[in-house]
From TrEMBL:
Record has ATP-binding as a keyword: yes
One example of a Gene Ontology biological process annotation: transmembrane transport
Hydrolase keyword on record: no
Keyword annotations from UniProtKB, A to Z: ATP-binding, Cell membrane, Membrane, Nucleotide-binding, Transport
Protein name from the UniProt record: Peptide/nickel transport system ATP-binding protein/oligopeptide transport system ATP-binding protein
Pfam families referenced in this protein's UniProt entry, alphabetically: ABC_tran (PF00005), oligo_HPY (PF08352)
A GO molecular-function descriptor: ATP binding
Domain ABC transporter as annotated: residue spans: 4-259
Protein backbone atom coordinates (compact mmCIF):
# COMPACT_ATOMS: atom_id res chain seq x y z
CA UNK A 1 0.00 0.00 0.00
CA UNK A 2 1.31 3.44 -0.90
CA UNK A 3 1.64 5.86 2.00
CA UNK A 4 2.46 8.74 -0.38
CA UNK A 5 1.64 9.30 -4.04
CA UNK A 6 2.86 12.28 -5.97
CA UNK A 7 1.02 12.98 -9.22
CA UNK A 8 2.42 15.27 -11.93
CA UNK A 9 4.12 17.46 -9.33
CA UNK A 10 5.48 20.62 -10.98
CA UNK A 11 7.19 23.75 -9.67
CA UNK A 12 8.00 26.80 -11.79
CA UNK A 13 9.36 30.16 -10.58
CA UNK A 14 9.06 33.32 -12.65
CA UNK A 15 12.30 35.31 -12.72
CA UNK A 16 10.36 38.51 -13.51
CA UNK A 17 11.36 40.99 -16.22
CA UNK A 18 13.45 44.12 -16.23
CA UNK A 19 11.80 47.31 -17.57
CA UNK A 20 13.95 46.97 -20.71
CA UNK A 21 12.71 43.41 -21.26
CA UNK A 22 9.09 44.57 -20.82
CA UNK A 23 9.59 47.39 -23.34
CA UNK A 24 11.24 44.99 -25.79
CA UNK A 25 8.26 42.64 -25.21
CA UNK A 26 10.54 39.80 -24.25
CA UNK A 27 8.72 36.94 -22.55
CA UNK A 28 9.52 36.42 -18.83
CA UNK A 29 12.18 33.84 -17.91
CA UNK A 30 11.17 30.79 -15.93
CA UNK A 31 13.09 28.52 -13.62
CA UNK A 32 11.51 25.09 -13.87
CA UNK A 33 13.16 22.97 -11.16
CA UNK A 34 10.47 20.29 -11.13
CA UNK A 35 8.48 19.02 -14.09
CA UNK A 36 5.65 16.51 -13.98
CA UNK A 37 7.06 14.23 -11.26
CA UNK A 38 4.95 11.17 -10.39
CA UNK A 39 5.86 8.37 -7.99
CA UNK A 40 4.68 6.64 -4.85
CA UNK A 41 6.30 5.30 -1.67
CA UNK A 42 5.04 2.11 -0.09
CA UNK A 43 4.54 1.71 3.66
CA UNK A 44 7.88 0.97 5.29
CA UNK A 45 9.82 1.55 2.05
CA UNK A 46 13.06 3.54 1.82
CA UNK A 47 12.99 5.33 -1.52
CA UNK A 48 16.05 7.23 -2.72
CA UNK A 49 16.34 10.26 -4.99
CA UNK A 50 19.66 10.77 -6.76
CA UNK A 51 20.76 13.44 -9.20
CA UNK A 52 23.28 16.23 -9.70
CA UNK A 53 23.22 19.48 -7.73
CA UNK A 54 20.33 21.69 -8.83
CA UNK A 55 18.26 18.88 -10.38
CA UNK A 56 15.31 19.60 -8.06
CA UNK A 57 15.73 17.08 -5.22
CA UNK A 58 15.21 19.60 -2.42
CA UNK A 59 12.41 21.31 -4.36
CA UNK A 60 10.56 17.97 -4.46
CA UNK A 61 11.18 17.39 -0.72
CA UNK A 62 10.00 20.86 0.24
CA UNK A 63 6.80 20.45 -1.75
CA UNK A 64 6.07 17.06 -0.20
CA UNK A 65 6.84 18.42 3.30
CA UNK A 66 4.47 21.29 2.44
CA UNK A 67 7.03 24.00 3.06
CA UNK A 68 6.08 25.33 -0.37
CA UNK A 69 3.14 25.00 -2.77
CA UNK A 70 3.42 23.29 -6.16
CA UNK A 71 2.60 25.12 -9.40
CA UNK A 72 0.49 22.11 -10.33
CA UNK A 73 0.05 18.44 -9.50
CA UNK A 74 -1.19 16.57 -6.45
CA UNK A 75 0.20 15.07 -3.27
CA UNK A 76 -1.83 12.19 -1.83
CA UNK A 77 -0.93 10.99 1.67
CA UNK A 78 -2.55 7.90 3.13
CA UNK A 79 -5.35 8.13 0.57
CA UNK A 80 -6.11 11.82 1.23
CA UNK A 81 -5.31 14.66 -1.17
CA UNK A 82 -3.09 16.98 0.91
CA UNK A 83 -2.05 19.39 -1.85
CA UNK A 84 -4.06 22.20 -0.26
CA UNK A 85 -4.72 21.96 3.47
CA UNK A 86 -6.37 24.07 6.15
CA UNK A 87 -4.19 25.19 9.08
CA UNK A 88 -5.43 22.41 11.38
CA UNK A 89 -5.06 19.73 8.73
CA UNK A 90 -1.55 21.03 7.97
CA UNK A 91 -0.55 20.66 11.64
CA UNK A 92 -1.82 17.07 11.57
CA UNK A 93 0.13 16.43 8.36
CA UNK A 94 3.31 17.93 9.89
CA UNK A 95 3.17 15.39 12.71
CA UNK A 96 3.01 12.54 10.22
CA UNK A 97 5.60 13.77 7.72
CA UNK A 98 8.89 14.86 9.26
CA UNK A 99 12.11 16.24 7.78
CA UNK A 100 15.72 15.49 8.64
CA UNK A 101 17.93 18.31 7.40
CA UNK A 102 21.34 18.38 5.78
CA UNK A 103 23.08 20.63 8.28
CA UNK A 104 22.61 19.38 11.85
CA UNK A 105 24.18 22.52 13.28
CA UNK A 106 21.95 24.93 11.41
CA UNK A 107 18.75 23.01 12.08
CA UNK A 108 19.12 22.76 15.91
CA UNK A 109 18.20 25.76 18.05
CA UNK A 110 21.51 26.69 19.75
CA UNK A 111 19.74 28.14 22.81
CA UNK A 112 17.86 24.95 23.67
CA UNK A 113 19.14 21.89 25.49
CA UNK A 114 18.86 18.53 23.73
CA UNK A 115 15.80 17.57 25.82
CA UNK A 116 13.92 20.70 24.77
CA UNK A 117 14.99 20.38 21.14
CA UNK A 118 13.51 16.88 20.97
CA UNK A 119 10.43 18.01 22.95
CA UNK A 120 9.85 21.00 20.61
CA UNK A 121 7.66 19.28 17.98
CA UNK A 122 5.41 17.37 20.43
CA UNK A 123 4.90 20.60 22.42
CA UNK A 124 4.17 22.68 19.29
CA UNK A 125 1.82 20.03 17.94
CA UNK A 126 0.26 19.56 21.43
CA UNK A 127 0.68 15.80 21.14
CA UNK A 128 1.14 14.90 24.83
CA UNK A 129 1.25 16.45 28.30
CA UNK A 130 4.60 17.24 29.95
CA UNK A 131 4.65 13.98 31.95
CA UNK A 132 4.34 11.96 28.74
CA UNK A 133 6.97 14.13 27.03
CA UNK A 134 9.31 13.58 30.01
CA UNK A 135 8.87 9.84 29.51
CA UNK A 136 9.18 9.78 25.72
CA UNK A 137 12.16 12.12 25.13
CA UNK A 138 14.72 9.99 27.04
CA UNK A 139 13.30 6.89 25.36
CA UNK A 140 13.80 8.50 21.94
CA UNK A 141 17.32 9.67 22.79
CA UNK A 142 18.24 6.12 23.80
CA UNK A 143 16.79 4.80 20.53
CA UNK A 144 19.09 7.05 18.46
CA UNK A 145 22.09 5.93 20.53
CA UNK A 146 22.42 8.94 22.87
CA UNK A 147 22.37 8.03 26.58
CA UNK A 148 19.74 10.40 28.01
CA UNK A 149 21.49 10.94 31.35
CA UNK A 150 24.56 12.07 29.45
CA UNK A 151 23.04 14.08 26.59
CA UNK A 152 19.60 15.45 27.56
CA UNK A 153 20.98 18.56 29.33
CA UNK A 154 23.65 19.43 26.76
CA UNK A 155 23.52 22.27 24.23
CA UNK A 156 24.12 21.63 20.49
CA UNK A 157 27.60 23.25 20.57
CA UNK A 158 28.65 20.58 23.12
CA UNK A 159 27.97 17.80 20.60
CA UNK A 160 29.92 16.36 17.68
CA UNK A 161 28.46 16.50 14.16
CA UNK A 162 27.29 12.89 14.34
CA UNK A 163 25.68 13.42 17.77
CA UNK A 164 23.92 16.54 16.48
CA UNK A 165 22.50 14.61 13.55
CA UNK A 166 21.27 11.91 15.98
CA UNK A 167 19.44 14.68 17.86
CA UNK A 168 18.00 15.81 14.50
CA UNK A 169 16.81 12.25 13.87
CA UNK A 170 15.31 12.00 17.39
CA UNK A 171 13.44 15.30 16.84
CA UNK A 172 12.06 14.05 13.54
CA UNK A 173 11.02 10.65 14.89
CA UNK A 174 9.46 11.57 18.22
CA UNK A 175 6.04 12.55 16.79
CA UNK A 176 5.90 9.00 15.34
CA UNK A 177 5.80 10.10 11.70
CA UNK A 178 4.71 7.71 8.99
CA UNK A 179 7.00 9.31 6.44
CA UNK A 180 10.47 10.79 7.01
CA UNK A 181 12.07 13.00 4.37
CA UNK A 182 15.84 13.00 4.74
CA UNK A 183 17.48 15.60 2.48
CA UNK A 184 21.20 14.71 2.30
CA UNK A 185 21.32 14.04 6.07
CA UNK A 186 24.92 12.78 6.12
CA UNK A 187 26.59 14.92 3.47
CA UNK A 188 27.92 17.41 6.08
CA UNK A 189 29.23 14.64 8.34
CA UNK A 190 32.68 13.14 8.53
CA UNK A 191 32.99 10.20 6.14
CA UNK A 192 33.88 7.88 9.04
CA UNK A 193 30.50 8.35 10.77
CA UNK A 194 28.23 8.54 7.72
CA UNK A 195 27.66 4.78 7.62
CA UNK A 196 26.69 4.71 11.34
CA UNK A 197 24.04 7.37 10.87
CA UNK A 198 22.67 5.66 7.75
CA UNK A 199 22.58 2.27 9.46
CA UNK A 200 20.74 3.88 12.38
CA UNK A 201 18.13 5.35 10.04
CA UNK A 202 17.65 2.06 8.24
CA UNK A 203 17.38 0.14 11.52
CA UNK A 204 14.88 2.63 12.97
CA UNK A 205 12.76 2.64 9.83
CA UNK A 206 12.35 -1.13 10.20
CA UNK A 207 11.68 -0.96 13.97
CA UNK A 208 9.40 2.06 14.03
CA UNK A 209 7.85 1.25 10.63
CA UNK A 210 8.08 4.59 8.90
CA UNK A 211 8.65 5.13 5.18
CA UNK A 212 11.59 7.26 4.13
CA UNK A 213 12.34 9.48 1.15
CA UNK A 214 16.13 9.73 1.20
CA UNK A 215 17.95 12.28 -0.95
CA UNK A 216 21.58 12.07 -1.96
CA UNK A 217 23.78 12.99 -4.91
CA UNK A 218 25.83 9.89 -4.12
CA UNK A 219 24.46 6.77 -5.78
CA UNK A 220 26.63 4.40 -3.70
CA UNK A 221 24.96 5.69 -0.49
CA UNK A 222 21.51 5.07 -1.91
CA UNK A 223 22.19 1.58 -3.18
CA UNK A 224 23.44 0.66 0.30
CA UNK A 225 20.36 2.06 2.03
CA UNK A 226 17.31 2.09 -0.24
CA UNK A 227 14.76 -0.42 -1.48
CA UNK A 228 14.19 1.57 -4.68
CA UNK A 229 16.01 4.52 -6.21
CA UNK A 230 14.68 7.30 -8.45
CA UNK A 231 17.08 9.10 -10.77
CA UNK A 232 16.40 12.76 -11.58
CA UNK A 233 17.87 14.94 -14.28
CA UNK A 234 17.13 18.67 -14.39
CA UNK A 235 13.72 18.45 -12.77
CA UNK A 236 12.54 15.28 -14.51
CA UNK A 237 12.49 11.70 -13.28
CA UNK A 238 14.37 9.57 -15.79
CA UNK A 239 14.49 6.11 -14.17
CA UNK A 240 13.06 4.31 -11.13
CA UNK A 241 14.16 0.81 -10.12
CA UNK A 242 15.12 -1.38 -7.18
CA UNK A 243 18.57 -0.46 -5.89
CA UNK A 244 19.88 -3.80 -7.23
CA UNK A 245 18.45 -3.37 -10.75
CA UNK A 246 19.53 0.24 -11.01
CA UNK A 247 23.15 -0.67 -10.40
CA UNK A 248 23.18 -3.94 -12.32
CA UNK A 249 21.02 -3.07 -15.30
CA UNK A 250 20.69 0.71 -15.62
CA UNK A 251 18.77 1.61 -18.78
CA UNK A 252 18.69 5.40 -19.12
CA UNK A 253 21.91 6.88 -20.59
CA UNK A 254 22.15 9.29 -17.64
CA UNK A 255 21.75 6.50 -15.07
CA UNK A 256 24.40 4.49 -16.94
CA UNK A 257 26.82 7.38 -16.59
CA UNK A 258 26.02 7.73 -12.87
CA UNK A 259 26.54 4.02 -12.27
CA UNK A 260 29.80 4.00 -14.25
CA UNK A 261 31.10 6.84 -12.07
CA UNK A 262 30.58 4.95 -8.77
CA UNK A 263 33.99 3.79 -7.47
CA UNK A 264 34.49 0.03 -7.26
CA UNK A 265 36.39 -1.43 -4.25
CA UNK A 266 38.50 -3.74 -6.46
CA UNK A 267 41.54 -1.71 -7.70
CA UNK A 268 42.21 -4.17 -10.56
CA UNK A 269 38.71 -3.73 -11.98
CA UNK A 270 38.29 -1.12 -14.71
CA UNK A 271 34.73 -0.04 -15.34
CA UNK A 272 34.04 1.38 -18.79
CA UNK A 273 33.28 5.10 -18.30
CA UNK A 274 30.08 6.33 -19.94
CA UNK A 275 30.35 9.70 -21.55
CA UNK A 276 27.98 12.60 -21.00
CA UNK A 277 28.43 15.47 -23.42
CA UNK A 278 28.51 19.12 -22.34
CA UNK A 279 28.02 20.79 -18.98
CA UNK A 280 25.19 20.41 -16.48
CA UNK A 281 22.49 22.86 -17.59
CA UNK A 282 20.37 25.02 -15.28
CA UNK A 283 16.58 24.73 -15.27
CA UNK A 284 16.15 28.28 -16.70
CA UNK A 285 13.86 28.20 -19.73
CA UNK A 286 14.64 24.51 -20.29
CA UNK A 287 13.84 23.04 -23.71
CA UNK A 288 10.61 21.10 -24.06
CA UNK A 289 10.89 17.34 -24.31
CA UNK A 290 13.64 15.28 -22.72
CA UNK A 291 15.91 17.68 -20.81
CA UNK A 292 18.84 15.28 -21.02
CA UNK A 293 18.74 15.21 -24.86
CA UNK A 294 21.34 18.01 -25.41
CA UNK A 295 23.92 15.90 -23.52
CA UNK A 296 22.83 12.47 -24.73
CA UNK A 297 24.75 10.38 -27.27
CA UNK A 298 21.51 8.53 -28.14
CA UNK A 299 19.45 11.71 -28.80
CA UNK A 300 17.16 11.67 -31.82
CA UNK A 301 14.40 13.86 -33.32
CA UNK A 302 11.71 12.27 -31.14
CA UNK A 303 13.44 13.54 -27.97
CA UNK A 304 11.86 16.99 -28.48
CA UNK A 305 8.72 15.27 -27.11
CA UNK A 306 8.76 14.39 -23.40
CA UNK A 307 9.29 10.63 -23.03
CA UNK A 308 6.74 8.85 -20.84
CA UNK A 309 7.80 6.71 -17.89
CA UNK A 310 7.56 3.18 -19.32
CA UNK A 311 7.83 -0.22 -17.61
CA UNK A 312 10.89 -2.16 -18.74
CA UNK A 313 10.84 -4.82 -16.00
CA UNK A 314 9.06 -5.49 -12.74
CA UNK A 315 9.44 -2.40 -10.48
CA UNK A 316 11.60 -0.74 -13.15
CA UNK A 317 10.51 2.28 -15.23
CA UNK A 318 12.48 4.46 -17.64
CA UNK A 319 11.68 7.67 -19.50
CA UNK A 320 13.76 7.51 -22.70
CA UNK A 321 12.67 7.25 -26.35
CA UNK A 322 15.92 5.60 -27.40
CA UNK A 323 15.90 2.91 -24.72
CA UNK A 324 12.21 2.04 -24.79
CA UNK A 325 11.82 2.19 -28.60
N1 LIG B 1 12.78 29.78 -4.48
C1 LIG B 1 13.43 29.63 -5.64
N2 LIG B 1 13.44 30.60 -6.59
C2 LIG B 1 14.10 30.43 -7.74
N3 LIG B 1 14.79 29.32 -8.06
C3 LIG B 1 14.83 28.33 -7.19
C4 LIG B 1 14.15 28.41 -5.92
N4 LIG B 1 14.35 27.24 -5.24
C5 LIG B 1 15.13 26.47 -6.05
N5 LIG B 1 15.41 27.12 -7.20
C6 LIG B 1 16.24 26.59 -8.32
O1 LIG B 1 15.73 25.32 -8.64
C7 LIG B 1 16.79 24.44 -9.02
C8 LIG B 1 16.70 23.17 -8.19
O2 LIG B 1 17.08 23.44 -6.85
P1 LIG B 1 17.12 22.34 -5.69
O3 LIG B 1 17.56 23.02 -4.45
O4 LIG B 1 15.81 21.64 -5.67
O5 LIG B 1 18.23 21.35 -6.23
P2 LIG B 1 18.91 20.09 -5.51
O6 LIG B 1 18.77 18.94 -6.45
O7 LIG B 1 18.38 19.94 -4.13
O8 LIG B 1 20.45 20.52 -5.47
P3 LIG B 1 21.58 20.22 -4.36
O9 LIG B 1 22.10 18.83 -4.65
O10 LIG B 1 22.63 21.25 -4.64
O11 LIG B 1 20.98 20.36 -2.99
C9 LIG B 1 18.09 25.22 -8.82
O12 LIG B 1 18.51 25.68 -10.09
C10 LIG B 1 17.70 26.35 -7.92
O13 LIG B 1 18.50 27.47 -8.18
MG1 LIG C 1 19.24 20.05 -2.20
Amino acid sequence: MAILSVEHLTKHFSLGRSLGAVLRRQPPSWIKPLEDMSFSIDEGEILGIVGESGCGKSTACNLIAKLDDPTSGNIVFDGENVTHLSKTALARYRAQVQLIFQDPFDSLNPRLKVFDIVAEAPRALKLWDEAEIARRVPEMLALVGLRPERYAQRYPHQLSGGERQRVGIASALIPEPRLVIADEPVSMLDVSIRADVMDLLRDLSARLKFSCLYVSHDLSILTHLCDRVMVMYLGQLVEVASAHDLVNSPRHPYTRALVAAVPVPDPTYRRQPVEIMGELAKPINPPSGCRFAPRCHLAMAQCSETPEMTWVAERHTVACHAVVA
